[in-house]
């Protein structure tokens, strides 16, 4: 399995017979080099979108149409995109599991907000979510944007993820301290990858606090377009 950071909360995950793009915000992402776009999306088989905010969803439709692959996400937003954009979508909801080839994707709860831009301001885009992505004998918990939740205990009881991709930049999501608390309190991760940080000065710039708090866990600070092999 290869996990490749696309900057901010975007990832390319090569798992089983799938190449999943998760929240792939490429256009205008200050961390993502424009000349890497072709390599980032090459061979992708599906796109996962955790919620409507532009720093997660802005490129999903364009990539979906370019590669003729489906976008998976919360039913409300997927239905809207299908009706208004003719998008190829798979809409589901929290607790639901969708199989894409050899990989099972379960939508789980998150605590945040979700909207897309409209001419008169933000437009409701369904609710925010995270994903459990299971394949190759591993389960990845991609938090999406969230704070710590007691729900996380249920997630671990049901899915026992060994890899955590945790939002940890603060201000809009958990910061490093809160992400570390979530990891220690609710999970038994072998590998943790922070995200939603370093993108803007407003967000945390280092994961040292996360590393220091998670002794015995392989906390990997990702580098854009550099594969993490698990």
TrEMBL record:
Keyword annotations: Hydrolase
Gene3D superfamilies, A to Z: Ribonuclease Z/Hydroxyacylglutathione hydrolase-like
Example of a GO MF term: hydrolase activity
UniProt keyword Hydrolase, yes or no: yes
Domain of life: Bacteria
Pfam families in alphabetical order: Lactamase_B_3
Domain Metallo-beta-lactamase per the UniProt entry, residue ranges: 7-196
Entry's family note: Belongs to the UPF0173 family.
Protein name: UPF0173 metal-dependent hydrolase IT775_15445
Species name: Thalassovita aquimarina
